[in-house]
TrEMBL record, chains A, B:
One of its GO terms (biological process) is 'de novo' IMP biosynthetic process. The lineage of its organism: Bacteria, Bacillati, Candidatus Margulisiibacteriota, Candidatus Termititenacia, Candidatus Termititenacales. It is an enzyme of class 6 (ligase). GO terms for molecular function: ATP binding; phosphoribosylformylglycinamidine synthase activity. Keywords: ATP-binding, Cytoplasm, Ligase, Nucleotide-binding, Purine biosynthesis. It catalyses: N(2)-formyl-N(1)-(5-phospho-beta-D-ribosyl)glycinamide + L-glutamine + ATP + H2O = 2-formamido-N(1)-(5-O-phospho-beta-D-ribosyl)acetamidine + L-glutamate + ADP + phosphate + H(+). SUPFAM superfamilies: PurS-like. This is Phosphoribosylformylglycinamidine synthase subunit PurS. It comes from the Bacteria. Its EC number is 6.3.5.3.
């Protein structure tokens, strides 16, 4: 069964987000000072072929821990669709 | 009124995604060959202070076109919450 996966990776709370900070400052310089709490993470989409949703989920967690995220400083969540 | 925004930025169809390709190859090398159509984009979250949802939406589109995305090669969608 092929599943479509959407994974959202962002920094854990308390971790400095230099890209988010720089982006917010740039927006402010463009006159958009009403923007706050800017964070820039990864939006990863892919398909995965697995026997069922549980197996797909288990593999996604493995891939996230091994490669797709940095478990020390990043958190993630994902959506599984067909 | 403060709105919470989630923006998802990805490459337009047909645009080469080197990070996506490299990630898929790396996963395959780790033994995860059942993964396909890997694309890595940006997951941007922020708050915006606006009079109403329409005004917030208009400003978000402006910021996307000017700074948050590259309209030539990227597409995006966003969710507005409170």
């Amino acid at each position: 069964m092929e599943y479509k996966v959407k994974m959202y990776v962002s920094y854990k709370d308390g971790i400095l987000d230099p890209v988010g900070k720089t982006t917010a400052d740039a927006l402010s310089a463009l006159g958009y000072a009403n923007v706050g709490e800017m964070a820039v993470g990864k939006y990863i989409t892919f398909t995965i072929d697995a026997a069922d949703a549980d197996k797909a989920g288990t593999q996604i967690k493995e891939m996230a821990d091994k490669l797709l995220t940095n478990p020390v400083i990043e958190k993630y969540h994902f959506e599984l669709g067909q």
